[in-house]
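Q: I'm writing up a methods section and want to include an example of the input and output format. Could you take the sequence below and give the corresponding predicted structure tokens, formatted cleanly so I can copy it straight into the document?
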Amino acid sequence: MRDVPWWGLASAAAAPVLMVGGWTAAAAVQPHFDQVSETVSSLAAPGATDRWMMTLTFLVVGVCYIVTGLALRPARTAGRMILVAGSAAGMMVAANPVHAGTAYPVPHMIWASIGLAGLTTWPAGAWRRGPAVPWGLRPVVAAVAVAVLFALLVWFLTDLSTGAGQVGLAERVMGVAQAAWPLAVVLSCRSGRYQETLAPPIAVHSTTAA
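A: Here is the clean output for your methods example:
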């Protein structure tokens, strides 16, 4: 099975670091900002202090996801394309920020929904069967990953709709999990050498003269 190149490992490792670093730095310059109850989108909203920091974070992390999707050669093409599409949609969130006083920022909601769906479901399209498949791409592991990511997404959406006061925390936990899973899959692909079976082995029979 084809390996993941070094630049795929670099992009997968950079995504969670840049994400957490970006939203932490952006939150630090906001007056009276509560990371538990306020979303990262508000850090990129017009009127936010140094909103470019969170906007740039959205874009750079999206690029990292796309590079990782292109590099994840052992995975099925469907899963890789879902990851790339979800990442591209996430980058569009930066181009459609939330505006103060707008109850339903439709463009922002559409792109955010597509991005979250892609980053949650891509393992379902990436798994493979076979004895040489890395553990991160095995069907059961992929199913568990999707279940966990989906549960975190439900937590975020529930808190967002009910106003329970922990939407920022839920979003950050979900974001870290979404960023960490591509890295885990890449590491599983690079943890050993895998050979892709292109055809069943040809049996060679020897005959001996009677």
